[in-house]
Amino acid sequence: MDPDEKVIQSNIIKALYLADGSAKQQYDNLKENGYYTNLISGNISQEVQADSITINMENYPFYFRYKGQQKIIRPTTIVTRSLITEGYLRNVSRSDNNSHGFLIERWRTLENKDINIQNRN
User: In what order do the strands lie in the sheet with 102-119?
Assistant: First the structure.
């Protein structure tokens, strides 16, 4: 995610087709707290890199757990955070807005904490 209001809005709209109200609620909370405005005004970019994604296909809906790292790139620092989320995947019809045919349900963040702060020169 880069500090561009139109790009952020476009990506959020696409992402919300892939999840239930749990993702919309998280988006609304972040927006209300000025998170996206701060990204833009602070010239902050973010990158997310997956370490692992586990899906239990034994029970339906399918439980998943995502583990990865989030980099928050500010003009003066790069913050690396551990990121762990979980939720469930439910089959839905494939469409132009949801080409893989799964809807993320009951999505929540379990961990999002700083693991490294690097000063930029």
Answer: 45-56, 62-73, 77-91, 102-119
How far, CA to CA in Å, does 9 sit from each of 21, 31, 76, 83, 97? Answer: 17, 11, 25, 22, 15
Share of the chain above pLDDT 70, in %: 100
Residue 116 structure tokens: 């490294």
Q: How far apart are CA 47 and CA 77, in angstroms?
A: 14
| Residue 96: domain span | 5-119
Query: Residue 65 sits in a domain of what CATH number?
Result: 3.10.450.230
Q: How many domains does the chain have?
A: 1
The pLDDT of residue 121 is 77
Query: Residues 44-103: pLDDT tens digits?
Result: 999 999 999 999 999 999 999 999 999 999 999 999 999 999 999 999 999 999 999 999
Give the strand pairing for 77-91 and 45-56: unpaired
* Sign of the C-alpha dihedral computed for residues 105, 106, 110 and 114 taken in this order: positive
